[in-house]
Write a structure and sequence with these properties.
The complex is a heterodimer of chains A (439) and B (221). Chain A has 439 residues and is an alpha+beta fold. Helices cover 55% and strands 18% of the residues of chain A. In chain A, a hairpin with a 3-residue loop joins β1 (76-81) and β2 (85-89). The chains are: A alpha+beta (439), B alpha/beta (221).
């Protein structure tokens, strides 16, 4: 139901109810007042007649009382001598006594109508005066009053309806304008909604603008990332192409073979970069899709290490796993395996031939930490923060060319778990130790 | 013609160096901005191939510093950034040319030749001194219209003289033009190659100023 329709129903319904209540109250009151006034009139008339009958019987008009007012005609009277002989009456009084009562008010049915009768003896109890009027006429009076109340309602109701319709429409126009502005928008156009809006929809527009700002900044981040990723891919592709051209132009077999081997390496680099990009995309998706659940960190670390068994063997690295078991944390086990795997991968990659890679699980605050230490060259303290950013490749990484994404993926996974990734000197100041804390 | 390649990626840097050598350049390669700064300071290069995303000092900074030193060496930016803004930014920072990765090795070589030609103030791709002409692109040398077959080193030596006819070049300068870093400089190599040049072309093509250096006359007839 529209706001306009609802307002209209409430306002008009309320008005009608109020009006009817007022009319009912008025009718009851008017009925009562009219009864009092007309009863008094009856009594007064009877008293006058009684006085006159006493004074001079003959002087009283026997035919009819003058019709001085339209309501005067309603009143009929009878004067009974000794209560038995009708000596005087109004034109419409008939020959029957109005009421058997001979004193005070009474209500009688006669001739198919209800009458109000007042009976009064004169001072010497010689004449009985009875005056009556029709109760139906009294009801008409009340109805007249109610009718007078009804017509303004008949006029006011449509007028009010029109007023509500128009004014609500006008008040809601800014809402419609905002709606149209949003409808017209290109999905990529995320500027805030501008212009004056009424105070009532101000908070709505403000929240909407805040949402737009958040969407814009996250989209900007995505765009920047996509563009960075595309540019990062260009370097290994350029190397691949250039090495192949070198192979084409090589004058001897040895330099040709060397260039082709390098081209293969460049191809591997591009492949690895694409794989890491896909991992990052899956990290974001995985965190959205699956619900967090408790899992054993120790088990996840074992899984990650066994996935790297081939790489470790190729470099004769000795990978060890020790510490708490099962070390249950809440989160996404698949992502934890990716994170620990990346750390182990780095440790093997940058560690020396035949070096040790130690993975330890231990308590840390309310959760657990995975500490991965290697015997490689480490990362200088000044470069550690940069190392966590996307596409940072550290200089002097002894011939190893990473994708520049590994640590940023781990960092993102930590973030998704409300945890942290810290880099520090390895045990005894040698190598690098990466500490992944998960709650 | 000796060029400096500044590229942090090992595989790409290696390929550019090897490719440029195949195209007859003497190419040296450094992998970070600070090393690039030092190498360019030597003043031995006819052109610089500069990557922008470098460790230690980024490419634009290297460029800004060398231009601040009033070094006019032609610089070709080689980068993955391909937006118009990036190109404008690079050229306005003092670069002479801009090439986006991935690129063709032949195009890179041609652009470097064009840069060095323009730096020498010569509108034509072929250098000409009197009856002697040298085309760096085709590596063709003609004496009185007759083609002459020269070795790589002989060609490089002749190229160095023809870029600056009338200028005295020292033996050290000539050695720099002939050899990259790490290449063994044979003693009296310059004299040996000069001897071959004089024999193949004309005895008067390069004159020796004893104790000073060597000079190619502005007019050869």
């Amino acid at each position: 139901m529209s706001v306009r329709g609802r307002l209209l129903a409430i306002l008009l319904g309320g008005l009608v109810v109020a009006w009817v209540a007022a009319a009912v109250a008025l009718a009851v009151k008017a009925d009562h007042e009219i009864e009092e006034v007309l009863d008094a009139q009856l009594a007064q008339k009877a008293a006058i007649l009684a006085l006159r009958a006493d004074d001079d019987e003959e002087a009283i008009d026997t035919e009819h009382a003058p019709a001085l007012h339209k309501y005067a005609k309603r009143l009929s009277f009878q004067v009974w001598k000794r209560g038995t002989r009708l000596v005087l009456h109004s034109a419409d009084a008939g020959g029957e006594r109005f009421s058997d009562e001979d004193s005070g008010f009474s209500t009688v049915d006669s001739g198919g109508r209800r009458w109000r009768v007042f009976s009064l003896w004169d001072g010497e109890r010689k004449y009985l005066v009875q005056v009556r009027d029709s109760l139906r006429d009294r009801d008409h009076l009340v109805l007249d009053i109610l009718a007078a109340l009804a017509w303004p309602l008949g006029v006011a109701l449509p007028a009010l309806a029109l007023l509500v319709w128009v004014s609500v429409g006008r008040s809601l126009r800014p809402l419609a304008r905002v709606g149209e502005e949003i409808a017209r928008r290109d999905p990529a156009y995320l500027e805030p909604i501008a212009g004056e809006v009424p105070a009532e929809i101000g908070p709505l527009v403000a929240r909407l603008n805040a949402l737009l700002a958040r969407v814009r900044s996250s989209l900007d981040g995505e765009r920047r990332f996509t563009s960075d990723a595309a540019h990062e891919l260009r370097t290994p592709l350029a190397a691949l192409r250039a090495q192949l051209q070198v192979a084409q132009g090589a004058g001897d077999a040895a330099s040709r073979d060397r260039a082709i081997a390098n081209a293969l390496l460049a191809g591997d680099r591009a492949t690895r970069l694409v794989e890491q990009l896909l991992t990052l995309a899956r990290v974001e998706q995985g965190a959205w899709k699956a619900a967090a659940a408790p899992f054993g960190l120790r088990q996840a670390a074992a899984e990650a290490i066994s996935q790297r068994a081939g790489a470790a063997a190729a470099k004769r690295a000795v990978v060890s796993l020790e510490g708490e078991e099962p070390a249950t944390v809440t989160g996404h086990e698949g992502l934890a395996v990716v994170a620990i795997g990346n750390l182990v991968d780095n440790a093997i990659r940058y560690g020396p031939e035949g070096g040790a890679v130690s993975v330890r699980i231990e308590r840390s605050g309310a959760g657990y930490a995975v500490r991965v230490a290697d015997e490689g060259p480490g990362i200088p303290a000044s470069r550690r923060e940069a190392a966590l950013r996307r596409f940072t490749r550290l200089e002097g990484a002894a011939g190893e060319e990473g994708s520049g994404l590994g640590l940023s993926i781990v960092s993102r996974i930590a973030e998704l778990h409300g945890g942290t990734l810290e880099l520090r000197d390895g045990p005894g100041g040698r190598g690098l130790e990466a500490i992944l804390r998960l709650a | 013609m000796r060029v400096l390649v500044v590229e942090d990626d090992a595989l790409l840097g290696d390929a550019i160096q090897a490719g440029l050598r195949q195209h007859g350049f003497v190419a040296d390669w450094v992998r970070d901005g600070a090393a690039a700064d030092r190498a360019i300071g030597d003043g031995a290069f006819a052109a610089v191939v500069l990557d922008l995303g470098l460790p230690r000092r980024n490419g634009l900074e290297v460029l800004a510093r060398l231009r601040a030193r009033k070094d006019a060496v032609p610089v070709l930016i080689l980068t993955a950034r391909d937006t118009v803004e990036d190109r404008i930014g690079g050229l306005d920072a003092g670069a002479d040319d801009y090439l986006v990765k991935p690129f063709d090795m032949g195009e890179l070589a041609a652009r470097l030749r064009a840069l060095s030609r323009r730096a020498a103030g010569s509108p034509s791709p072929a250098l000409r001194v009197g009856v002697l002409s040298l085309d760096p692109a085709t590596r063709e040398v003609r004496w009185r219209g007759e083609p002459c077959a020269l070795s790589r080193k002989e060609f490089a030596l002749l190229h160095a003289f023809m870029r600056r006819p009338g200028a005295v070049l020292t033996r050290a300068q000539l050695e720099e033009a002939l050899y990259g870093w790490g290449e063994e400089v044979e003693s009296n190599a310059v004299e040996v190659h000069l001897h071959h040049l004089r024999r193949k072309l004309d005895p008067g093509v390069v004159q020796t100023l004893r104790g000073v250096g060597y000079v190619m006359p502005r007019e050869l007839a």
